[in-house]
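(Deposited chain)
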Amino acid sequence: MRSILLLFPVFMSTGLASQAELYKEVADDICHCLEKADGRGSHNRAADCLTASMGTYREELRQAMELSGSQRISRRQLTEALLEPLVENCPLLETMFPMTEEVEYRWSDNPVAASGVRIVTDKFPKADPKETTTAEAPAQWRASGQLIARAGGGVLRLETDSGEIWQFELPGRVARGRKLVVGEPVSILYRREWRTTDEGGVVVKVVTEIVP
């Protein structure tokens, strides 16, 4: 039994060698066929030569490719098998079908780039709208308007140019020494403070300076 197994590699190598010899023979036949061409219709001539050689070596090729009687010889598979012997032994193919050099394209080959025109594209993704963009709040805000009530009890009320009524908390140290007259324009600087209440909380505007 062991001696029979040892013969398997020999049979396989013999089969592969005979297959390679067959492919080389078919490639030589195709090359001789191409040499008879007059240079016109080279692509068609190559296909005709392949078809003719397939007919000449049909049975040998079927055995080498292990095909049954109902299977057709694959032209694609055969072409791949014949590629190496054809390249090695048929220099005529190089003159009939010259290899085209692969072109490596660069950015400077772009027609727009070559023209020198500046390319402008939209920024992606687009910037968020200002109203949805968060940022650190300034330390102070500025407000101006007409004093609509006497400043007292730590409260200052202004009517802005837009007609809105704004109320501010006025610390005594800020109001000290200032004469505020109802109906006169007033400009102030203020800060916003969060105050906790029973309802949850509220933002209070606190005057930090009365601007002359």
